[in-house]
Each structure stands twice: as structure tokens, then as C-alpha cells.
Amino acid sequence: MVWGGNLTNIAVNTQAVGVERLYKPKPIMASFHGLWSLAGFVAAAIGSLMIGHAVPPGLHFLFIAAFILAGLAVSAGATVRADAGVDPNQPLFVKPDRELLGLGALAFCALICEGAMFDWSGVYFKKVVLADKNWVGAGYTAFMSTMALGRFGADWLAHRLGARRVIQLSGLATAMGLAVAVALPTLPTALLGFLLVGFGTSAVVPLVYSAAGRSTHMSAGMALAAVSTIGFAGFLLGPPFIGFVAGASSLRVSFGLIAVMGLAVSAVGSRVRV
Predict the structure, then answer these.
(1) Which domains does the chain have, with CATH numbers?
(2) What pLDDT is stored for residue 259 in this prediction?
(3) I need a labelling partner for 78 at 20 to 30 A (CA). Which of 55, 88, 238, 256 fits?
(4) Residue 110 contacts by C-beta under 8 Å, 6 or more apart in sequence?
(5) Predicted confidence (pLDDT) at residue 81 exceeds the cutoff of 80
(6) pLDDT the model gives residue 52
């Protein structure tokens, strides 16, 4: 399932790179990812509705698949047909160059932070913040809300400040938000921290994917495949790493280490061309 999701991720981001080239020099990749974040809220609402009406999971999945196929049928004629940067004489498999490996490392650090928030935010609010059961999901909601909001503003910021500066500031915001949540684990301060983490993580992956799509070493699809595969390794490794560190010490310590990954985003972002 994870690899299937990654294949879909590569396909839709490759299409987004092609569309973004039509808008050049205006960046729009982060706005696409903002729509993805909004779709997450819609999916949660649909899932809650299905559960509330006791709809079997198989029927639920069939309904969603039919909806997606209908959307693809309607939009197929408006898609960009050629993969950006395709060279017909290019070999099928090309080793990623140093620039793409650097972008992959940047995505790796950013997605470790995202994976931590996706899988452990509720646990953190329950076990560390000691939030009331009605507020256990508030941290995740705060994070997702500002991540979606931040993505709709990231293109504007990148156009004016430059992608590198935005990524550096994003890493600092992520680290600061996690530091606040770790140092002051009360409901108001943890919420503030998670809001900052949402803003911090919002722009990094879209800007990295946009930079990968401009690779001169290989086609956009192949470049995105290389970068996203490295990045998703962080998304998969982050949550079990938190669990391992939490078991050996505490959940606050593990979240503190994830804050260091936010600083790594800023450090790597200052050295990688985006």
C-alpha cells in the first residue's frame, strides 16, 4: 500500500511540475499540496460519515475508487501529456546526481517531522500534555490546519523571498514549535507549538519537489521518483524511531530529537540549490 501510494505521489507531482512550467516563473507547486491537505480534511469527514452510517469498508473503498475514476475521466483531456525534461535518448535508469541526493536528504529530514506529527501527535497530547479526551486530537488538527494554510501562502513567499530562504525559515519554525511543545507541555503552549510545526513543514516538500522537477540530469518523473523515495524513507522511519526513543527514555525526549531534524532542514536547505 505504501509503495502504491508513492507511485501515485510521483505521478501527480510529475503532472504538477508540468503544469508549474506553464506558469513560469510563478511557482504553484505548494498550492497543489495545499489542495492535498484540504482533501485530507474532506477524507476525514467522509470517513466519519461512513463510520457513522456503518458502511462496510469494502463498499466505502469502492465508492471512493469510483469517485476518483470519475474525476480522472473528466480531467484526462486537460492533463500535460509529456513528462517535463524528457530526453528520448536518455537511458531508462540514471544514477541521481549530487543535487538530487541533497534534495532527497532535505525531503528525508522534513518528512521525519511530518511522520512524527501524523502518527504521534495524539499520543503526545494524551501522555505528555495530559489533555482531556475531548482535546487529544486538537494537536493534530492544529498541525494539519496550519500546514494547509501555509501551503497556500508558500508560493507567494517563495516568489518574493526565494525558495532557499523559505526552507531555512520553515526548518526554524518546525524546530521552534517542537521545542515549545517539549519545554512547556501544557494545552495552550503545546497547541501553539503544533501550529508552528504545521507552518514549518508546509512549504518544504512542495519546494523540494518543484526543484527536483527542474533537474537537468533526468526527466521530472525520474527525478521526483529518486527524491520522493529518499524522502518517504524518513516518513516511514520517523514514527518507529520516536517509539524506540520513547521506550528507552520518554516521549518528550523523542520529540526533542525530532526538533533537531527541523534544524537539519534549515542546515541542509542552506547548502542545496532549490
Answers:
(1) 6-269 (1.20.1250.20)
(2) 95
(3) 88
(4) 170, 171, 174, 201, 204, 205, 208, 231, 234, 265
(5) no
(6) 85
